[in-house]
Amino acid sequence: MENEVNARDSFDSHFMAGFISGKIIQNGYSNLFEKEEEKLCAKREFSPEATNVFDAGRELWKYYHAQPNINVNASLYDIREYFQGRNEKGNMNNKSDDKTYNKLIGNLRSTLQILATKIKPKVYEYGFLME
User: With 50 as the cut, is the pLDDT of residue 30 above it?
Assistant: First the structure.
């Protein structure tokens, strides 16, 4: 939420935070004409690896929100563009001169790789991809 990253303004959407915390109401329909009772979704539980990704992302987002002239609703792509800039051809640069950003994005990538290693077997086990 905004207070976690010291955002200067309110976010346009709180859907994902609400969904993760179980505050989003889920409407189920048994058929086109009967509406089932509204139920709250279950609060999501995350592995330590996933929590580490959230923490690393939050630190990067917090650093971004401390900069001047930012988009309060920025995506990861927007944050990368802010720090890495673009070259003469309009392509995003591969690196940034900002050492703190480089450390934070490196940490995020590292935690994402650890999480990817953990979930990779499940991708095949549950049939999302075939070996």
Answer: no
